[in-house]
């Protein structure tokens, strides 16, 4: 994947950075349906296994890891929250098509951190109003990973206009091609370019009542109950970048000679490599802990695990990649070495899946609530 990624990343048009060849090859190898229930043709992998796979893909390219991770986590959410009828109708669509990716639409041009730290009066601008036996959806979502590529979407829309978005929104399952649903602007991102992000646009889009996932007005329950490993997968994606930077640093420092010896033979450089490995291993242990707890909710779920592993892993990745850049000297700054891609990729998860500061605040709220409740 890595050699192909270097060329795709350089494409000027963001849509040209995306590769169906890579998706189809991954699908043929079972990566796309790794988490799908075995009775529906998948491997039924648990969260701990999935997190390891996501990190490994990200070593080759972080954008590709996000393309798959979004699909893998949303399959878990869909099959977890769905009733029997929804499983029977939707899961085969995901199994049978090598291009069947998933996306989740929450963020709007004017609503982002508001859904992570619910702010009382804020409600989704995207509204669903009842019509006959279904709902009519109007509105727009922004920045959606796989937005222009997915086949099946989980979409959040306000169904009760009188309360905040975390209390009055519902989660809808929508297929690409549904009348009234189009995709718009494809984001021109500085990094993670092999994944596309796009607008989702809804103009009087009718969705039947049986495609509400979970209960009406309780869309956030789908997230809290069936999305626990999402943060760990995001963390695994960005950790893969750090591992790639570390691997490249080992190679570079064992070949490049300055001061009469290989760089790795200078203690100050070797110590820097040791610090990188320490941080990577600590981030990975945190990710695996969160993923294991997501698999074993019966042992108790700590809500901070839904926020903090990504914060930690993205900070580790940023630190490792920028230190590795320094180790590569002037060569690292030159585009032809291909190292600068890792810097652009690592920056992505400081914001994606929630801005780190916002996630720290969310974790702080849960710690505070638990302490004050005694
Ligand atoms: C690469 C990428 C992929 C994405 N993929 C998806 C996707 O698939 N689906 C989806 O729905 N969204 C997606 N997003 C959106 C992403 O989740 C949001 O960008 C993110 O939640 C933050 O929103 P924002 O960037 O608009 O920042 P804002 O919410 O505008 O925040 C800006 C700054 O203000 C701070 N801030 C905000 N609120 C508070 C507060 N209450 N108190 C203190 N400080 C605050 C934040 O910490 C941040 O530093 C993606 C974003 C990126 C970059």
Q: How would you portray this structure in words?
A:
The chain folds into three domains: 2-101, Acyl-CoA dehydrogenase/oxidase, N-terminal domain (Butyryl-Coa Dehydrogenase, subunit A, domain 1, Orthogonal Bundle), CATH 1.10.540.10; 103-217, Butyryl-CoA Dehydrogenase, subunit A, domain 2 (Beta Barrel); 228-372, Butyryl-CoA Dehydrogenase, subunit A, domain 3 (Up-down Bundle). Helices cover 48% and strands 16% of the residues. The chain contains 13 helices and ten strands. The strands form three sheets. The protein has a four-stranded mixed sheet. A hairpin with a 2-residue loop joins strand 2 (127-131) and strand 3. Helix 3 (47-60) runs parallel beside helix 8. The radius of gyration is 21 Å and the shape is globular. The mean pLDDT is 96.
Bound molecules: flavin-adenine dinucleotide
- Main β-sheet: number of strands, strand sense, barrel status? 4 strands, mixed
Total strand segments: 10
The radius of gyration is: 21 Å
Structural class: alpha+beta
């Amino acid at each position: 994947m890595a050699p192909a990624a270097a060329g795709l990343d350089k494409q000027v048009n963001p849509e040209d950075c995306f590769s169906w060849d890579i998706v189809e090859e991954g699908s043929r190898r079972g990566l796309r349906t790794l988490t799908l229930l075995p009775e529906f043709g998948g491997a039924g992998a648990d969260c701990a296994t999935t997190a390891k796979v996501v990190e490994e893909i990200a070593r080759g390219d972080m954008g590709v890891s996000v393309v798959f991770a979004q699909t893998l986590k949303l399959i878990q959410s869909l099959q977890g929250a769905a009733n029997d009828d929804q499983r029977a109708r939707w899961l085969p669509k995901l199994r049978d098509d090598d291009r069947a990716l998933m996306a989740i639409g929450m963020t709007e041009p004017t609503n982002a951190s508001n859904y992570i730290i619910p702010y009382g009066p804020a409600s989704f601008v995207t509204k669903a109003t009842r019509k006959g036996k279904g709902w009519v959806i109007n509105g727009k979502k922004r920045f959606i990973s796989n937005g222009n590529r997915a086949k099946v979407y989980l979409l959040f829309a306000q169904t009760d206009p009188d309360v905040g978005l975390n209390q009055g929104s519902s989660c809808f399952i929508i297929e690409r091609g549904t009348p009234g649903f189009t995709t718009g602007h494809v984001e021109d991102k500085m990094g993670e370019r092999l994944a596309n992000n796009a607008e989702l646009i809804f103009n009087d889009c009718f969705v039947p009542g049986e495609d509400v996932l979970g209960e009406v007005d309780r869309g956030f329950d789908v997230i809290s109950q069936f999305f626990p490993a999402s943060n760990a997968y995001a963390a695994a994606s960005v950790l893969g970048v750090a591992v790639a930077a570390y691997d490249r640093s080992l190679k570079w420092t064992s070949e490049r000679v300055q001061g009469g010896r290989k760089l790795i033979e200078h203690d100050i450089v070797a110590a820097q490599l040791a610090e990188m490995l320490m941080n990577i291993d600590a981030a990975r242990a945190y990710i695996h802990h969160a993923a294991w707890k997501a698999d074993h909710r019966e042992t108790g779920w700590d809500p901070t695990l839904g926020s903090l592993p990504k914060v930690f892993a993205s900070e580790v990745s940023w630190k490792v990649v920028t230190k590795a850049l320094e180790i590569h000297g002037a060569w690292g700054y030159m585009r032809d070495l291909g190292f600068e891609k890792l810097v652009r990729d690592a920056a992505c998860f400081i914001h994606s899946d929630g801005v780190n500061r916002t996630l720290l605040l969310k974790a702080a709220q849960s710690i505070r609530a638990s302490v004050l409740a005694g």
